[in-house]
Specification:
three-stranded antiparallel sheet, 3 strands, 11% strand, elongated
């Protein structure tokens, strides 16, 4: 009786393992690709990132743009995206 349960367990484990999906090559970005993306970020991407983190975009009269967080600090959206300023976790 125990052998039957062990065999059924092994078969079930085998079926779940056989159905596991491996990510396609290139589907997961490399560290270098992520760092390059951070260096080549567009203003739009940086502003979307600011909003996703709870901030708002402000354009001042002199034309400068800032990502203002609810805690009161703010900085250039691209610098915020790159992690140069602000207190957040990516």
């Amino acid at each position: 009786m125990k052998i039957r349960f062990v065999l059924i367990f092994i078969i079930i484990c085998f079926l779940f393992t056989a159905c596991a999906v491996e990510p396609e090559a290139g589907a997961i970005p490399t560290v270098e690709e992520v760092l390059q993306k951070r260096e080549n970020v567009t203003e739009h991407e940086a502003e979307v990132f600011c909003r996703d983190k709870g901030g708002k975009i402000e354009t001042w009269q002199d034309g400068s743009v800032y990502c203002i967080m609810p805690q009161g600090y703010g900085c250039d959206p691209i610098e915020f995206y790159r992690g140069i300023c602000g207190a957040f976790e990516k």
